[in-house]
């Protein structure tokens, strides 16, 4: 009988280890190796040898042998394809708020390699978040707005002749804006006016044939990834030390976010309290058509981590907020993901009525909530008993723990090659929703 019990315990341990390994970012190897850079300020890319400015209106290729400077707002227009060779470096100009926009109908083919990524970065000797603009892709997939959208109002000193290149949205769900693969975007998010910054990468009305894999946005002053409408599929996306939101979905986006990472620093977050994941359907109700679909995000194998070394102190100082925010009329289906070190893990918009119909649109399944100051709350409401009872139900397979980050993840201290996968067999987790 004793031997049978020992065998049963062994199977339980093996099963537990496998289950833990399935949560958060996954891979038999650390897929962050080789192409990412968590300390880019130490990298010298040299002086630019070529300048990109104005409109690119004929098919153009950028080569690794040259270093390019984005001078002002650069638009790829008129069904043009911009091809970027692996290993190419494009530098955004600080003085002119350099940015690159792929207009609706145009295409970018930026297919780097794991060992030779494409890099967008700053031209300043001492690099800081917000040194330059960012990367913008505009497509003709649907949004939930009346008519189509435009980003013209977001740019300062934009010549009126360029307004037509700022439109996005349409009816082509299966459209393609090209390929972004093994791409790094560093120190973007330049401030344009009060309350508005460029994003690291803005995807507006982008269709589901666009390939978006292995993209890292680091030290961004705006949102790392902002998705407005469209049908976007993001795989192995990384946001590191952003001042604003890591992943922001809005305006009826129907998107998938898979095997992706957001690492927040308590010292980088802006005063408005940025989140790892923000899912909303609109900013202003009067701008959207409610006969169209609201935002729906399906997320799997995410790791959302606050790298605070003193969580309680940083919470008292107001430096740590929630990891996830879900707005009214928006839907989030997230599973097999890790949320570690936030205050609390999740906030639901105060306009959301807590009932079965609405909660079935906001799914947290097979999650690992770790070391958070509370789990799931409604905005401005400290009583979350109903939500804890709902999401704490055993049928959701959610796990709750209080482990330090150093005990939870494989290797956070390695500045060159950190490993944010969960430690196997070293996580003490209890199936309890008590804080």
Automatic annotation (TrEMBL):
Signal sequence segment: 1-19
The organism's place on the tree of life at top rank: Bacteria
Keyword tags: Signal
Keyword Signal (UniProt): yes
Protein's UniProt name: T9SS C-terminal target domain-containing protein
């Amino acid at each position: 009988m004793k031997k049978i019990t020992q065998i049963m315990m062994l199977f339980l341990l093996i099963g537990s280890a496998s289950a833990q390994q399935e949560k958060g970012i996954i891979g038999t190897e650390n897929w962050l190796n080789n192409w990412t850079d968590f300390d880019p300020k130490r990298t010298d890319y040299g002086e630019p040898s070529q300048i990109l400015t104005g409109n690119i209106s004929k098919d153009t290729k950028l080569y690794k042998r040259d270093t390019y400077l984005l001078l002002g707002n650069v638009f790829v227009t008129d069904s043009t394809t911009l091809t970027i060779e692996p290993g190419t470096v494009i530098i955004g100009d600080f003085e002119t708020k350099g940015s690159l926009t792929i207009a609706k109908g145009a295409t970018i083919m930026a297919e780097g390699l794991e060992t030779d990524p494409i890099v967008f970065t700053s031209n300043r000797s001492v690099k800081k978040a917000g040194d330059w603009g960012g990367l913008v892709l505009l497509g003709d997939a649907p949004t939930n707005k009346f008519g189509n959208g435009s980003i013209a109002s977001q740019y300062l000193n934009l010549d009126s002749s360029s307004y037509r290149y700022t439109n996005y949205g349409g009816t082509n769900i299966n459209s393609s804006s090209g390929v972004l693969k093994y791409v790094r975007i560093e120190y973007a998010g330049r401030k344009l006016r009060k309350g508005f910054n460029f994003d690291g990468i803005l995807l507006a009305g982008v269709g589901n044939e666009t390939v978006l894999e292995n993209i890292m946005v680091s030290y961004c002053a705006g949102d790392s990834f902002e998705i407005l409408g469209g049908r976007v599929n993001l795989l192995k996306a990384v946001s590191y030390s952003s001042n604003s939101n890591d992943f922001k979905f809005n305006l009826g986006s129907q998107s998938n976010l898979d095997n992706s990472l957001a690492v927040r620093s308590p010292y980088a977050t802006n005063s408005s309290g940025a989140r790892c994941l923000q899912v909303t359907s609109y900013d202003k109700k009067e701008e959207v058509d409610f006969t169209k679909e609201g935002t729906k995000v399906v997320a799997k194998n995410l790791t959302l981590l606050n790298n605070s070394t003193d969580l309680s102190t940083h919470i008292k100082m107001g430096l740590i907020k929630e990891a996830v925010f879900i707005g009214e009329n928006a839907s989030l289906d997230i599973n097999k993901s890790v949320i570690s070190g936030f205050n609390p893990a999740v906030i639901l918009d105060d306009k959301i009525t807590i009932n079965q119909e609405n909660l079935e649109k906001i799914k947290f399944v097979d999650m690992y909530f770790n070391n958070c100051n509370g789990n799931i709350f409604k905005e401005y409401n400290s009583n979350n008993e109903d939500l804890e009872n709902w999401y704490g139900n055993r049928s959701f397979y959610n796990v709750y723990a209080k482990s330090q980050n150093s005990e939870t993840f494989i290797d956070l201290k390695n500045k060159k090659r950190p490993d944010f996968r969960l430690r196997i067999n070293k996580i003490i987790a209890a199936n309890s929703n008590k804080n």
